[in-house]
Amino acid sequence: MTRVFRPAAALLGRLRFAHKFAVVGLVLVLPLGFVTNAYVDLHQGQIEFSAKERQGVAYLAPLVDLIGEVVTARHLAVTSGPGRTAGVAGAVARLDRVDGRLGTALDATSGWQAAKGLLQAAERSVDAAAAFAAYNRVTAHLLRLIVQVGDRSNLTLDPDLDTYYLMDALQFRLPVLLDQAGRSVDRTLVDRGAAGDRDGPQVEVSLDSGVVASTLAAMDSGLSTALRNTRSAELRRVLPARLRAVDRAVGALLKELTAAVRQGRLAAVAPDAAVLARGESTALAALLAVQLDRLLADRIAALAGSARGIQLLAGGALLLALYLFAGFYRSVTAPIRRMVSVLGAVADGDLDQAVRVDTRDELSFIARALNDTVAKTRMASDRLAHQATHDLLTELPNRALILDRLDHALARMRRGPGQLAVLFVDLDRFKVVNDSMGHDAGDEVLGAAAARIGALVREADTVGRLAGDEFIVICEDLGDVQEALAIAGRLIEALERPIPTHPRGTRPREVIVGASIGIAIARAAAVVTADELLRDADLAMYRAKRLGGGRAELFDDTLRVAIERRVEVEEDLRRAIPGGQLRLHYQPIVDAAAGAVVGFEALVRWLHPRRGLLQPGEFVPVAEESGLVIPLGRWVLAEACRQAAAWRAASGGRAGPYVAVNLSAAQLADPLLLATVAGTLHDAGLDPGTLWLELTETAVMADATAAREVLTQLRALGVHLAIDDFGTGYSSLAHLRRFPVDALKIDRSFIAGLGGDPEDEAIVALVVSLARALGLSVVAEGVETPQQRERVRALGCDTIQGYCIGRPMAPDEAWAAAGAERLDAISGPS
After folding, report:
1. Percentage above 70 pLDDT, the chain
2. Cβ distance 517 to 424 under 8 Å?
3. Most CB atoms within 10 A, among 215, 228, 504, 588?
4. Is 131 within 8 Å of 78 (Cβ atoms)?
5. 9-42: per-residue pLDDT in tens?
6. What's the angle, vertex CA 173, arms to CA 170 and CA 178, rounded to 5?
């Protein structure tokens, strides 16, 4: 093998890389790329062209045959009455089959259907003249359809003389010959039947004869040219005799017609004068169709064989190229192996290696570049190690180094009497700065915060940046917890001071971000890992955030128990949703004026196997934090729709109270929400107008553009939409106008102040006025006293909901309440 490839290796080893690829390109790209692609693509195009022609011939053959049958039917209609023949029916059936296969590809189906309609009309003609005219319309339409099929199937563009003239005869000459030959005789019969034995319209018959004669001459000329140029021995054998037969038959017809015209006695034309011409022309058409198909099939086979030949040639060129590539491979293998060996040593940490290459090509330059890279790597390794363990922006230790130092600090703590604190610092308003002033300003804030934190801690403490606006401070050898709290207090105070920024394109500004700090303490007796300590500090920081921010919170047993309790609730809830532990209670909503129940709000309860019936506040927040709110919401929606459908069935199908279901922000963002609502309504068999979906302002405004699109799709289903807790969020009038909502629910916090707080009363009046201007209804929720009930009525609220009307109740109680004449009149405050 070495001796076989040595010449190629020696040749390519003397060339530079560009020359090597040039040699291979000349051998491989030219024959394979140019010849193979261009030549084979050309042949493939010709094959597809001829295949299209074969489709056209396959469609034309029964079309021409049908013209012959239609001419026969026309003749029968003129001579003996009914023109329907078995031949026409058979030809139509054959064309139906062909159209089913090729009609769409040739765009002929509509034309063929129109032809069948004309043919049916012709068959219903009651007299000879009407039948003659009707069948003439059929043949004219079929001739146009033949031309259309020929155009669609490339027949008029055929490149070979023999097939071109065969197609010309089949497409243009024979159909006209069939039609005009029969028409000339039928015209004399129609005239004779209409006016006795008098002479017929000699001019028309003379013109018909001229068309027949000129068509026959053109066909003879074209087919003679085809015979001179064809390579088909079979065509030269069978065509002349058939052509002569047509010439004799048509010639005899023309002679009889010419004599009749000259003598002025068209009645002398025999009724069957065109029968022989028609039969011979039809036979010639069938012959031409068969020969055309064979010639096209032979052409396709020849083109395919030629394409295979060029592919074989390309294969040979490929083998040669592979040989040269093998030589090229051997010319570079040894140097590359030496380079790989050096790279392996460098990867193992040995930066004293160098590589030597004795070639005169680009590999020598690569070797020198590799040696330079190894030298530079030695200088950059320390810098890379630093970057791998430090934050690029603040130069503080990153998470990896923080965990490493925390592990070492825990090990030292266990050997001494002191304790260790981890402070998790999170900037409170950093996102606002980043979003409003840009990332450059945000980077300035992070840099300033890092500097202030570093300046306030002890020299032995570690300050690191965990991610984003989160910093970690590790304080070792603390005397007590108060010392950690004092450090946290100094940090909060320092981060509350204004930080100067210089946003790009605007004047310098000062921002105040503040910080929330979580503290986790580790003592020598405790068994805790670095990850667990960071987690505890993180949880304590989140408690500081929830309590308003700008403060420090210590991780303690209370927080640990709360976390464990939350985990327990989440696990139980995960089993409760499919386990049938959830219940729905329904709080009535009544008409403010009439007092009748118009709807119910569905409120979920959890019948816990150990803790009894739980209110939503005890598990819904956990569901929202854990992602269980999506399956929980689906269950509530399905159960509420099922119950509403059951109530409607119990009332004999009459429209009853609507049911309102709350949607969370997570559900609104669920891409399957629309399908879930539509599927639930369908499964329950519930009228969409019976379902109201309630969303808070906060949920809607989290992503107003996306929310508008989802709400529009929900409204298109037919369900109604309401904004819940209105007035507590941050929606504006401009946003509210764009949402397809039906109602506003005034938050209970404003209802509670009615009768005692003028501001709350003004807010309620303003909301009602706004709703009226936008064509929305208003629901007052949280109505708990008769005085509040009367005030919301006086202020114009449409419907009322609250303990003054009725508490959430089981489905049976709710159904009974729905039957009360005036629920607000019989329900006092609870």
Report:
1. 87
2. yes
3. 588
4. yes
5. 676 667 665 566 666 666 666 666 666 777 777 8
6. 95
Distance of alpha carbon 823 from alpha carbon 320, whole angstroms: 96
Rounded to a whole number, what is the distance in angstroms from the first to the last CA of the chain?
A: 101
Q: Would you call 660 helix, strand, or coil by DSSP?
A: strand
Phi, psi values for residue 796, rounded to 5°: 100, 15
Mean per-residue pLDDT over the chain, rounded: 84
- At 476 the three-state DSSP class reads strand
> Residue 183 contacts by C-beta under 8 Å, 6 or more apart in sequence?
71, 74, 136, 139, 208
In 547-601, alpha helices (H): 557-576
Give the pLDDT confidence of 357-391 residue by residue, as tens digits.
666 667 676 777 767 777 777 776 656 767 778 88
593: its two tokens: 């004026």
Residue length, the chain?
830
Residue 376: both structure tokens together: 């530079």
The radius of gyration of the chain from alpha carbons, rounded to an integer in Å, stands at 47
Torsion angle defined by CA atoms of residues 50, 52, 54 and 59, in that order, rounded to the nearest 10 degrees: -160
Question: What does the block give as tokens for 413?
Answer: 């703590």
Percent of the chain with pLDDT over 90: 31
Residue 627 phi/psi, 5-degree rounding, is 90, 0
Separation of alpha carbons 670 and 660, rounded Å: 19
Nearest-angstrom CA–CA distance, 748 and 802: 9
Question: How distant is the alpha carbon of residue 532 from its chain centre?
Answer: 43
Residue 807 neighbours by CB under 8 Å, 6+ apart: 587, 830
> What pairs with residue 423 in β-bridges?
473, 519
| CA dihedral (377, 383, 389, 393) positive or negative | negative
Q: In the prediction, which pLDDT does 199 show?
A: 47
Structure token digits, residue 777 = 């209804």
CA angle 69, 72, 73 (to 5 degrees): 90
Q: What is the largest CA-CA distance in the chain?
A: 142
Distant-in-sequence, close-in-space partners of 131: CB < 8 Å, separation ≥ 6: 74, 77, 78, 83, 122, 125
Give the pLDDT score at 663.
95
- Residue 615: DSSP 8-state: P
Both tokens of residue 17?
């890389």
CA distance 270 to 89: 27
Both tokens of residue 558? 């209370």
- For 592, the token pair is 């403010």
pLDDT value of residue 825: 45
Report the distance separating Cα 46 and Cα 629, nearest Å: 63
Helix 430-437 with 439-456: angle, nearest 10 deg: 150
Q: What is the DSSP string of 160-208?
A: SHHHHHHHHIIIIIHHHHHHHHHHHHHHHHHHHHHSTTS---HHHHHHH
**Helix locations, 195-274, DSSP H:** 202-229, 233-263
Domains of the chain with CATH codes: 40-309 (no CATH), 390-555 (3.30.70.270), 582-603+634-826 (3.20.20.450)
How far, in Å, CA of 317 to CA of 636, rounded? 71
- Residue 490's alpha-carbon distances to 451, 456, 691, in angstroms, are 14, 7, 55
pLDDT at 78 over 50: yes
C-alpha to C-alpha distance for 244 and 451, rounded to whole angstroms: 109
User: Could you tell me which of 822, 814, 779 has the C-alpha nearest to residue 799?
Assistant: 779
**DSSP string over 442-470:** HHHHHHHHHHHHHHHS-TT-EEEEEETTE
Residue 626 tokens read as: 């854990």
Q: Are 155 and 55 in contact (CB under 8 A)?
A: no
Q: Strands 743-746 and 509-511, how do they pair?
A: unpaired
